[in-house]
Specification:
This protein is mostly helical. The protein contains four helices and three strands. The chain is 58% helix and 9% strand.
């Protein structure tokens, strides 16, 4: 997964057509994953823009779907990961730890 020290990975500059070519997913599949709250593209004048981190995430989602994992399970896993990162950050701030 992208690291915070790779800021280019997080810039939302890639169109859905390019994302489709890079991932092998159809634009409809990509929009579906957005509807299911698995990815969060930026929108400007009705045009979706994705980052390289989004592309990586979509490829992870596609792999999991091929393994039979449901979108609900993927979203629950994402939520759990976010909660764990937040808790770790709060604990680090409270106890002045550095990771």
């Amino acid at each position: 997964m992208a690291q915070k020290n790779d800021p280019y990975k997080f810039k939302k500059v890639i169109s859905i057509g390019i994302v489709s070519e890079l991932t092998g997913l159809s634009p409809r599949q990509i929009r579906y994953y957005e509807e299911r709250k698995l990815i969060f593209p930026e929108r400007s004048k009705g045009i979706r823009k994705y980052s390289f981190a989004d592309v990586e995430r979509l490829m992870e989602i596609a792999d999991k779907r091929e393994e039979g994992v449901t979108t609900r399970e993927i979203r629950n896993e994402m939520t759990k990961e976010v909660r764990e990162k937040m808790l770790k950050g709060q604990m680090n701030a409270h106890f002045h730890f550095r990771s």
